[in-house]
Write a structure and sequence with these properties.
The structure holds two protein chains of two kinds. Chain A is an all-alpha fold. Chain A is built from 17 helices and no strands. Chain A has a domain of 229 residues: MetI-like (MetI-like fold, Orthogonal Bundle). The radius of gyration of chain A is 28 Å and the shape is globular. In chain B, the strands form three sheets. Chain B has a five-stranded mixed β-sheet with strand order 2-1-3-10-4. Chain B has 18 helices and eleven strands. Classes of the chains: A mainly alpha, B alpha/beta.
């Protein structure tokens, strides 16, 4: 008796909880609908606008991919003749030049993306871990690290383009004139080296984002875990491997995915570095599609390539989310147990 | 965890949507009218050293036009790199200027869109008649046999510019007239960090202009008579190889020029690093780069025989700017009046003088200003030995495809890779396969 009055005292919370049978009638439903429905209602205008801004052009793009859209029809693209799957078959006919070039560009993009995302993640994570413990000048260093991320892309990339110039560029000046690493000045903006140049700029531009996200993720790891691990004799490597990386998993999951999508679709970097006709070695797919549609005025073929790219990215992302969410869920419990044990 | 996944899904959806919206567009409709008779929008191409220079040249003339007719012209100077895309966008959306400048090599490509006002005899009458214009300039205003899509505004031609001091230092007394002489001269100069000839290996349009002229000299064209691409003929291959060999084999062009696309070869010339450039109307640019008029000389671009003329003695493409009117303009009369004003004798003299180009209007050419060192050669070239680029709808695709092939060959040459007839032919065959109308 005394216990029930005492537990009823603190508030209505317990009352609601303790009398579900009577409250769960038709009386409660409107409030619940309002509570659950209201956020969606509030989201609706934004959702509609989003659809309008993104979905409509997307649908138009897909329709265009089935049309023969050249300069003769761009004035009113709806009048362009239907070509069925012609644009698609042309794009994936890897024995013919158009398909061969697209495949080449796709492979270059895959290699570029894997390297760029990998390096961005590695450098960003390493830097974030190094910056974790407080020391003199940490704030300043953190700020400096973020400079590439804060600079306008165009200004940053054009500066790199100047530095990569054959005759007057800083890169050749340092590598060739000062360090004597090459027998003669190299070309960075044309020929095979252009891939390296593109990768350098992309990593330079991308890693601060990884740094920022990982740094934020690190703040959530309780200090006690490290202290306990240190007491048990775990070294720095062990701490990183057993505590830091597993705890960062959900952060990394998003980070790698976003970096992948940004890098795979990156248009600004190659366009500013190389112009409308990128060297073969650095012919990223975004530029390739741009050239196929806007420069050679074959918008139908360009749209078809865009749709293929969309399908590919959807597939990769779907598989990635499926795999990572499964593996993230599966070892989670033993992991938590393990860290709790420590 | 769930919120992170939701965020990831959101980010993915956004990125995918952005990827797919790379191609969008709208439809446009209708012809023009005279609903808005007091206003015009004009997109001018960038002719001077900068957009600002152009505004300074053009604005007083537009004010003059407003005083005469009461029509206010809103000016926008569009840089070259943006111009074609801007025109394409305006064509698809129907939201463009009333009057615009186009590169004359694009005439047939843009004509095919049907967005430009055709200049039939009635329209030509309104601006004083077709006969006022030089024939060679009219040759690049659209497909032969159709009403022109534009009216010539400024004419230009290629010539060989040379540095007098560098020639004197190397003991050269007269500018080369044949390609053999040019290579010989170039070899004499190309040493100690100095080079014989400048090139813009990564500038697609410039590559096209140069190899087009060389192809003419080899008796070839890049299109068949019925407008089909024909990039791999013996003459075309020989032309491209000859041009790239200036760097690869003859070594009179600096390897670094392979990545030039921003007129760096002109600044090298002005700095005395290269002794010759093949360029169109460069005098105004040299002046802005600090070179005095008596420091450079100008001669006709080389031909195999040494004597420029028609056919195999062609030594320039017909370069220049045309003026076009968007069909859906809501001030068609005003637009025509404005074209009449800009192509009038007085304005032609004034504007072409400011830009160092040649008036495509016959009556204006007699002005002594076009009889100077910088302009005489150009005027004669235009009149006797220049040919218009193929006036076919696929011209702009040709510029990209073949221009890129030449760029890649220059990259090979610069990196010390061999450039052979086979490798040239292979690149050109690939370019041809990318043409929509093969």
């Amino acid at each position: 008796m005394t216990t029930t009055t005492a537990s009823a005292q603190p508030g209505e919370r317990t009352v609601g909880k303790s009398s579900p049978g009577t409250a769960r009638g038709p009386r409660r439903r409107p409030g619940r609908i309002r509570r659950i429905g209201l956020p969606y209602l509030l989201l609706l205008p934004a959702l509609l606008l989003e659809l309008l801004v993104h979905l409509v052009p997307m649908v138009i793009g897909i329709v265009m991919s089935f049309k023969e859209l050249t300069q003769f029809y761009i004035r009113d693209w709806t009048t362009a003749p239907w070509t069925g799957l012609d644009n698609f078959t042309m794009s994936v006919d890897f024995d013919a030049p158009v398909g061969e070039a697209l495949l080449h560009s796709f492979l270059v993009t895959c290699a570029f993306t894997i390297l760029s995302v990998g390096l961005c993640w590695l450098i960003g994570t390493a830097a974030a871990i190094c910056m974790q413990d407080a020391f003199r000048g940490r704030g300043l260093l953190r700020a400096i690290f973020l400079v590439p991320y804060a600079l306008p892309v165009y200004a940053a990339v054009i500066t790199w383009a100047f530095m990569f110039q054959h005759d007057n560029g800083l890169v050749n000046h340092v590598l060739h004139d000062q360090l004597g690493l090459t027998d003669k000045p190299s070309f960075w903006l044309i020929g095979d080296n252009s891939f390296v140049a593109l990768l350098v700029v992309s990593v330079w531009k991308g890693w601060p984002f990884a740094f920022l996200i990982v740094m934020a993720g690190l703040q959530n790891i309780p200090k006690e875990l490290y202290e306990a691990a240190a007491l048990d004799g775990a070294g720095v490597w062990q701490q990183i491997r057993r505590i830091t990386l597993p705890s960062l998993r959900p952060v990394n999951q998003v980070l790698v995915l976003v970096l992948f999508l940004w890098t795979f679709n990156d248009f600004n970097t190659p366009f500013v570095l190389f112009g409308k006709a990128a060297p073969e070695a650095a012919d990223l797919i975004s530029i390739h599609i741009y050239q196929s549609s806007f420069v050679t005025w074959n918008f139908g073929a360009g749209s078809a390539m865009s749709v293929l790219l969309l399908l590919f990215l959807l597939l990769v992302t779907g598989v990635y989310l499926f795999v990572t969410s499964r593996t993230a869920r599966a070892p989670r419990n033993p992991q938590e147990r393990k860290t709790a044990d420590v | 965890m769930r919120s992170i996944r939701a965020a990831a899904v959101g980010a993915v959806t956004m990125s995918l949507a952005l990827a797919a919206t790379a191609c969008g567009g709208g439809s446009s409709s209708g012809g023009g009218s005279n609903d808005s008779p007091k206003e015009l929008t004009y997109w001018a191409s960038n002719q001077g050293a900068s957009v600002e220079v152009d505004k300074k040249v053009l604005q007083p003339e537009l004010d003059k036009f407003e005083k005469e007719t009461g029509i206010k012209v809103k000016l926008e100077v569009v840089p070259w790199s943006d111009l074609l895309n801007r025109i394409l966008t305006a064509t698809t959306s129907g939201q463009g200027p009333d009057v615009l400048n186009i590169g004359n090599t694009w005439s047939a490509s843009l004509q095919a869109t049907g967005a430009l006002l055709p200049w039939d005899s009635k329209n030509f009458e309104k601006i004083g008649g077709r006969d006022r214009f030089v024939d060679s300039a009219l040759g690049s205003t659209g497909v032969e046999g159709q009403d022109p899509a534009a009216v010539p505004l400024y004419s230009m031609a290629y010539a060989l510019y040379y540095n007098k001091q560098m020639f004197a230092d190397a003991g050269i007394t007269k500018p080369p007239a044949t390609w053999d002489e040019l290579v010989e001269t170039g070899k004499k100069i190309s040493k100690d960090g100095k080079w014989g000839l400048g090139a813009e290996g990564s500038n697609l349009s410039n590559n096209i202009h140069q190899v087009f002229v060389l192809a003419k000299q080899h008796g070839a064209d890049f299109f068949t008579a019925d407008g089909k691409p024909d990039f791999t003929s013996e003459g075309a291959v020989a032309a491209v190889k000859q041009y790239v060999d200036l760097m690869a084999k003859d070594k009179v062009v600096a390897p670094g020029n392979a990545e030039y696309a921003q007129n760096q070869s002109l600044s090298d010339f002005a700095k005395g690093k290269t002794a010759m450039v093949l360029w169109q109307t460069a005098s105004a640019t040299f002046k802005t780069m600090g070179m005095k008029d008596d420091e450079w000389g100008v001669a006709p671009a080389p031909v195999p025989s040494g004597a420029p003329g028609a056919g195999k003695a062609t030594n320039s493409m017909v370069a220049g700017i045309n003026m076009a009117v968007f069909k859906n303009s809501d001030n068609l009369d005003g637009a025509t009046k404005f074209v009449k004003f800009m192509t009038s004798d007085a304005e032609q003299k004034l504007l072409n003088k400011a830009y160092g180009s040649i008036p495509p209007v016959k009556a204006a050419q007699s002005d002594p200003a076009f009889n100077t060192q910088g302009t005489t050669v150009l005027r004669e070239t235009l009149a006797t030995s220049a040919a218009a680029l193929p006036q076919v709808p696929d011209e702009s695709q040709f510029e990209t495809a073949v221009g890129t092939a030449v760029k890649e060959l220059f990259a090979d040459a610069a990196n010390g890779r061999e450039v052979t007839t086979e490798s040239v032919k292979e690149k050109l065959a690939k370019a041809q396969q990318q043409m929509p109308n093969k």
